[in-house]
Design brief:
By secondary structure, the chain is mainly β. The chain has 4 helices and 27 strands. It is 6% helix and 45% strand. The strands form 7 sheets. Strands 11-12-13-14-27-23-22-18-20 form a 9-stranded antiparallel sheet. It has a 5-stranded antiparallel sheet with strand order 1-2-3-4-5, with no helix packed on it. This is Aldose 1-epimerase.
Length: 325
């Protein structure tokens, strides 16, 4: 019998992609119709990601497209007043909060599946694509035909999510990209949960993750390297960190009594990670970002905040990987 499987299946009345690895008892499900959301991952009989109660919630509930699985973000987090100023141009993004633009539109629109398969050498995988050129309403406020291509691959019990963003247009565009995985954790049952992150500095932020000052080495960022208990991390609390770029960039969430660890490795294109605990699910997010929240509107050098552009014809790669230890 084959080790790996990749197929289209029906879930809650919608077509989803299912990837399986029999030897590690691993399963991933992706919803192309709802932002190519990697909304389910189970590995070694452990639930790693928190799925929505029903897939229809991605369609019917206004903010649920941001609240489960792994939303893909462009730009990540909030843009104050929906305004971005870059290279002498001003962009006005639609407001989906009273005074902010939140998380972009990639997570709420259908993606096109362009490849699906499995083999002993490559594991089980799916590749999907989203093109701004197919969405005139997005181009009306962000006139840059970007193409996002994402491959999700299950191989030897590890789930890799990576891809490229390419500027198909003739002008440089502001660039800000991120992911928002919701890792399933048993908060409230007495479990000791310890988080380890290769943090370098911590940014002071509001409860909406807006930056209020420059980063520094704090007691929290220092302790994260060896491990910080997060069982009592406040609901709707958040912390913004710059990562150490000199070594292993794997974050780990250890569940002491349950005897396993969720590992999440980030590629070097993500210099920042936002920690966040929602109040609508028993979950904790480690959100890799290419920039700090609302970086284009901060009074700091772009090199400090990650604000940057993507040039005509430029292609930016990204990579992540999650697994259970």
């Amino acid at each position: 019998m084959k080790r790996y499987g990749a197929r289209v299946k029906e879930r809650d009345g919608f077509d989803v992609i299912e990837l399986t690895d029999r030897l590690t008892d691993s399963l991933a499900e992706i919803a192309p119709e709802f932002g190519c959301n990697l909304y389910r991952f189970e590995c070694r009989s452990k639930q790693v990601l928190v799925p929505p109660p029903l897939l229809s919630a991605f369609r019917d509930e206004e903010f649920d497209k941001f609240r489960y699985g792994t939303p893909i973000l462009f730009p990540p987090n909030r843009v104050k007043d929906g305004r971005i100023a870059y290279r002498g141009k001003e962009y006005r993004l639609p407001l989906n909060e009273p005074t902010n633009h939140l998380h972009g539109e990639l997570s709420s629109r259908p993606w096109e599946v362009i490849d699906l398969g499995e083999s002993e050498k490559e594991g089980a995988y799916v590749t999907a694509r989203f093109q701004y050129s197919s969405h005139p309403d997005i181009l009306a406020y962000f006139p840059h035909p970007l193409t996002f291509t994402v491959t999700i691959r299950l191989y030897e019990g590890r789930l890799a999510m990576g891809g490229t963003i390419k500027n198909e247009g003739g002008e440089e565009a502001p660039f800000a990209f991120g992911l928002h995985p919701y890792f399933s954790l048993p908060f409230g049952n007495g479990e000791e949960i310890v988080l380890r992150v290769p943090a370098a500095e911590e940014w002071p932020v509001t409860d909406q993750a807006f930056v209020t000052g420059e980063p520094s080495k704090t007691a929290f960022s220092g302790r994260l390297r060896s491990g910080v208990p997060i069982s009592d991390y406040p609901r709707l609390g958040c912390s913004l960190l710059s990562l150490d770029d000199s070594g292993d960039r794997t974050c780990r969430i250890e569940l002491k009594e349950s005897g396993y660890t969720i590992a999440y490795r980030l590629g070097p294109e993500f210099p920042y990670v936002l920690l966040f605990r929602p109040d609508w699910a028993s979950a904790y997010s480690l959100e890799p970002y290419t920039y700090v929240t609302d970086a284009f509107n901060l009074p700091y050098a772009y090199e400090r905040t990650g604000a940057r552009g993507i040039a005509p014809g430029e292609e930016i790669e990204f990579s992540t990987c999650m697994w259970v230890e």
